[in-house]
Amino acid sequence: MNWKRHKPNSFPEPPPWETGVEKKQLELFADVASHDLREPLEKIIFFGDFIKQRYGAGMDEKGRDYLERMIGSAMRMSRLIEDILEFSRLTSRTFEMKPVDLMGIVREVISDLEVRIQESNALIEVGKLPAITADSKQIYHLFLNLISNAIKFRKKEESPRIIVRSLEEEEAGHVTIVVEDNGIGFEQQFADQIFKPFERLHSQSDYEGSGLGLSICQRIVMAHGGCINARGVAGKGSMFIITLPKVEKEAGRGEKSFDC
Amino acid sequence: MEKKVLIVDDDREMCTVLGDILECHHYQVNVAYDGLQAIKKTHEQKFDLILLDVCMPIFSGFWFCSAFKNKPDTKNVPIVIMSGLPTEKNEEQAANLGAIAYLKKPFKIELLLKVLAKALNENAEN
User: Is domain B3-121 classified as CATH 3.40.50.2300?
Assistant: First the structure.
């Protein structure tokens, strides 16, 4: 597979409603909506689970299957609401910028994903990664999403092999990190589409998820004044190329960007 | 002997279903609908464990946790916090206030039972 360094043409501009007062109101709305939507969902899950435990033995297999599907759907919706909330928060939160060792963050992510790594028999190689100035929690979420995706979109017949490495500095003051995998990949024509909220290349029943993971990654990288691009070959693998400034001069907000 | 659990949640429906679940699994259950009521209940009787929600009107779960853990006679009673709050900060705050575990809502009954059993075991060992 020919992995050429990809140069993006432009940054997506934040939409006009993501500024000032409207932005705060949107965040508040997301908070309230999230809380109020989650509460009844939690009840569906609890009551469903309780019915299964207490009365499951008296049901036939079909009845238990329906109940299981109902609980599963409610759980998925709850995760979706959480992702939407996280996504909306990324536009308005002031980041806590401090020196961050990317190596340490990636190790933390790998440790937190231990169960899924073992279950999928994944092999993750981590090259030498630099230290940068960033919001450590957001960078953690960035790598968590990217590495989780690499495990999730694996080929059925092959164990996932994931490489996280940095590229030699091509632009002064910036670092470029690459996360690549040998998974199912995607057609290059969809490379921009996969970063759009709720855009999916696969059905929910094949690969579970909210369709927000990569949008969240893009927001995190953009808020740090960086950029993220995807290269894919269907059936062979994907590569995500992240360029971030080494030192952020002012506290990061979503509006900033740089030419890369 | 049945372990005594105090469920603290302003959502009465949640108290009912959690209470039913725990009674089914041989816990003795009592409920309080806010932090202040919970403090009163813990004055009246001793509990083996507190299952505590965070977002409650007036006296929140964190307020209760802090008050409860600062009293010498109750500081060793394990508190399991359950909350739908999404940020890691809340988990951190719960740990700082002395909670033994943090259950992120929504959770499955199986997980709840595991966490309660573990909390009670750990507490017995100490």
Answer: yes
